[in-house]
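Bug report

Summary: structure tokens for Heptaprenylglyceryl phosphate synthase differ between web form and batch submission.
Environment: batch mode, default settings.
Steps: 1) Submit the sequence below via batch. 2) Compare with the web form result.

Sequence submitted:
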Amino acid sequence: MKEEIKAWRHAFKIDPAKSFSESWLADICESGTDAIIVGGSEGITIDNVTECLAAVRRFSVPCVLEVTELEALTPGFDAYFIPVVLNAHNPAFISGLHQQALKAHGQLLETEEVLGEGYCILNRNSSAARRTNADAAMDMDDIVAFSRFSENVLQMPIFYLEYSGTYGNEEVVKKVSETLEHAQLFYGGGIRNSQQAAQMAVWADTVVVGNAIYENKEEALDTVKAVKEANR
């Protein structure tokens, strides 16, 4: 699975705390996206994660759990992403929760596909930033330094620029893309149309579209083709 993930160009992120219809989910899963990432910042429970997994499993698209709540860890996903929020001031989101996850669910996480994500949250007004107490007001040099730390020191296979609901700075994404040598660059945040998706796909290895699937599904579906046709 880890090798397959390297080829992902586009992913939809589904929030298990939000309701959805069967037809809506079918459109998302059959859109041609490379993967479904299940994850969110608030209201994540074992029940809604399990329900989301069961619904997505009716389709052939790979399904990954981004682990943000220990109680929501459940077997059956193709892979598990473990976000390490590098710019968090709350140490629980740097190592504390991860140690607790391995303590409580080590057997599960050792036998499944697990990938660490070096995470930078860059929207200070987002729920993710508030929850982790992230320093989202960093300049480009700070962000680039975190990308180097993630790749070279922590040796994380994924570096994730998370603008969480707001469209990010393309120059930052470009600079990080040029800095990383081996890590896969994920971009997420504020993509609401195909033009924005294509712009970020020039620099990011993988573009993640989240809120748009709830706000304007048709526009969100168009991002799949836009990302895959973008020159990288």
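Above is the batch result. After comparison, the two runs are identical; trailing whitespace caused the diff. The chain is about 40% helix and 20% strand. Residues 56 and 63 are 7 Å apart (CA to CA).
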